[in-house]
Amino acid sequence: MTVSQDLSILSLILEASLVVQIVMGLLMAVSLTSWYWIFRKGLAIRGAREATGTFEQQFWSGSDLVQLFRETSLHRDNAGPLGRIFEAGFREFSKLHGQKGLEASDIINGSRRAMRATFQREIDDLEAHLAFLASVGSVSPYVGLFGTVWGIMNAFRGLSNVSAATLSHVAPGIAEALVATAIGLFAAIPAVVAYNRYIHEVDRLSIRCESFMEEFSNILQRQLR
């Protein structure tokens, strides 16, 4: 009963050396921060995906472009990445189309540049803080391993003051050291899984947006003929 109490997770953390406790505290803080961004980015990417699907249905349903542009401009914050790309492209198209002396290629290229700039901002916003998750996934196990190595070193150093070393002398020190590795893996695994999934989702949205920009440019070009 005594051994079980001494080797509980909480007691191992509280009785660990100062360096190991600092490592554990750092990993716990990083883990909480990564979970915050996992949930936040998950909601943002899901919202962008749903808004993109809604706008695609409206656009390809044969809606009037001018009316769709007005509605998108009024609800720009909820239009999603694709809606804002459309709004930027059609706004630039309308502005350039009203100017005299411009060729059709100049108008289309200007519209494409506006859409491309908005597209880049949208993708950058979706990818923001994903690099943090990647760093947590790659670095946390090594930070935990550092705490483990340090704890095991202290455990064996403590044996120098013991005449007859037994497993009961070294087990608590090794156990508290291994907790650091466990916390490191607890921080790293969800971050890696979330990063891989979110990058894949952002790539899919990026492809959809790029395809839309090409198709929309062709539609605008036909209107100039």
Automatic annotation (TrEMBL):
Compartment(s) of residence: Cell inner membrane; Cell membrane
Transmembrane regions: 12-39, 130-153, 173-195
Keyword Transmembrane included in the entry's annotation: yes
GO cellular component, one term: plasma membrane
One Pfam match: MotA_ExbB
Subunit structure: The Tol-Pal system is composed of five core proteins: the inner membrane proteins TolA, TolQ and TolR, the periplasmic protein TolB and the outer membrane protein Pal. They form a network linking the inner and outer membranes and the peptidoglycan layer.
NCBIfam families named in the record: tolQ
Known function: Part of the Tol-Pal system, which plays a role in outer membrane invagination during cell division and is important for maintaining outer membrane integrity.
Family: Belongs to the ExbB/TolQ family.
Name assigned to this protein: Tol-Pal system protein TolQ
Organism: Candidatus Dactylopiibacterium carminicum
